Each structure stands twice: as C-alpha cells, then as structure tokens.
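If your schedule permits, I should be very grateful for your opinion on a structural question. What I wish to show you is a protein chain and, alongside it, a tokenised description of its three-dimensional fold. Would you kindly read the sequence against the tokens and tell me how you understand this chain to fold? Here, with my thanks, is the record as I have it:

===
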Amino acid sequence: MFALFRHPVDRAISTYNYLKYADWEPTYDPEIADMTLKQYAQSKHAEFNWMTNALSSAGTRNVTEEHLKAAMDVVRRKFLVGLLNRKDESMERFEKYFEWIYRVHPKNQEKCRVGLLAAGTGSNINPNKVEKPLPGTPTYQLLVALNEFDIRLYKYVESLFDEQANFVKLKEDGFRLDGASCCKCDKSC
C-alpha cells in the first residue's frame, strides 16, 4: 500500500475547519460549527491520536506505547510512505515504485498531475474563516497534547520516508513518461 501522511496537528486543524462547515458529512455536528478551535480541542470531538488508534486497532482514546509500537510496525511493513509537505517528491516515488506509466493521453495526464499537486483537492470551502494557530500558542499546544503518539508516529514516518528513497534510487525522475503512450491512439496497447 501507499499513503500520504500529514502532520497530526495540521490534520486536526484541517479536520476542525472542514467539519465546521461540512453539513453534508455523516460526522457533521452543528455543535462544532459554533466552536472556536480552542473549544474544539477541549471537546469530545477533537482528534485524539487518531492515526495511532486506527493503525493499531486500539479502539480507545487511551492510546499507549504498545499501540504506538504496533502502529509503527504496520507502517513499516505495509506502507510505502509519502509526506504531504513533500507531495511532489512523494508522488514521484509512488510512480517509480509502482511503475505507473501514462496510458491515456499522456499530455493531459501530466497537466492534470501538475494541477493536482499545485492546488490539491478538498480545499476548505471558506478559506477566509479558517483558524490556524501558530506553533507554541495555547491552542496549538492543546492539539499537540491530544496527539502526542501521532506526532511520534509522524516523526517515525518522516525517517521511514528518507529510508524508502532507496527503493527507487535507480529510476529516473519522470518515470511515468518513459514509454508513455495513448491506448486510444496506439492500437498495440
């Protein structure tokens, strides 16, 4: 598998900013819409070591060192990791590792790839109302405290990301274009 990881505090902030307006989501709670980020961080709604919990199947808010070790083991054994803050490099690595080569309109696929990496998807629908506390502020520190194990897991993922560069070191950047063809145009596909 492959996965793109995001810093846990950034993920928690983004989740809050999304759920504040996402009334179409099953997890939407109108109570969140009226909360500040600090209130959210102090509420039962805030993310609490979500990734460690999910990867270790902890099923509890009481995540432990054992859960962290289990989550690290799952990531190490099962994932080719990418980092959202290094998404261009991550995407390049995924393409090389899985040997993804464009097969339908390579020029259009490359244009789409560039656009997605530049702008992303799922951006907040109301960016003027996004709360984003600076590191070291009380609200930020609340989110750090809630996600202590996820932050440690993320640091492990960062080191694994650097190690996994060896998996594709012999392949050139732009691998997706090597032998790219258009199956709609080239009947030999």
Remarks:
- The CA atoms of residues 2 and 30 lie 34 Å apart.
